[in-house]
Amino acid sequence: MYRDAEEIEREKILLCETSSSEHKLSVAPEIDIMEYCRKEWRGNTPVAKRMRKGYEAVAQKFASIRRVRGDNYCALRATLFQALSQATQLPSWLQSEDFTMLPENLLSKYDWIKQWQLKQKLGRKMGEIRDEIKEYLILLRKKWKNISEIKGPIEKQEACDKLFKNEEEEYSLYEALKFLMLNTAIELYNDDKNGRRVPVFSWLLFARDTSSNPRQLMHNHLNHIGHSGGLEQVEMFLLAYALQYTIQVYRLYKYSTDEFITLYPNDPEEDWPVVTLITEDDRHYNIPVRMCQETML
pTM, whole model, 2 decimals? Predict the structure, then answer.
């Protein structure tokens, strides 16, 4: 279902061909959205026709598209890039004094978290995992704060582009997001067990044979994100709840159905910011940019 090593490598070459080896491009420069569509979908098969119709619909709202590197982190990459690009303040959950204590607090309660897989490395000691994840969370807060304080849209975009060319920092941020997803999953699981109301997706998340509890979710899903698998649909809900963002996705292969525009979650909080992504297949995500003027009005 997800991208194999050869396919990922081809994608990396495509995105990096105009950049130096020191500055690999995770999010390609923007191009006209219909120009991109014409290059990608030239045939007259039913699928190609549907994709073109889908892109035409997106083009009513957005003028351009930025292609995202497809290495199984793409859902995290596209979501975080969009969130930072439009950030004007630090989210309340990032301002919490306890935020950077999450690894220590969770590891003290759940011994199994020491089997968390960081950047394809296994066998770390508990203290090393705790300290490393704490560093990632501190980095996430620092970068979000710095970018949100930039007033000019051009300067803000330049700061985002620079961050997403720094491979070491970029992948550290994805590990932070994955850990926040685990924390959110634990909270939802415990709320449900204690009789509190939880969103419907939480039932679906823990109804899977491979993730009937947070430990299984970590072992069978979160540990594989970015390595051998991407985010499944139910995990897009989890990401949205972890960030307290609404993720709006144009699902092009669903054009002309009720699922063409899908919201994660589908009943979002009114005060949650919205980020918009595009997918052709629910496994790889790109970014629509430059909202059309009439849409903004």
Answer: 0.89
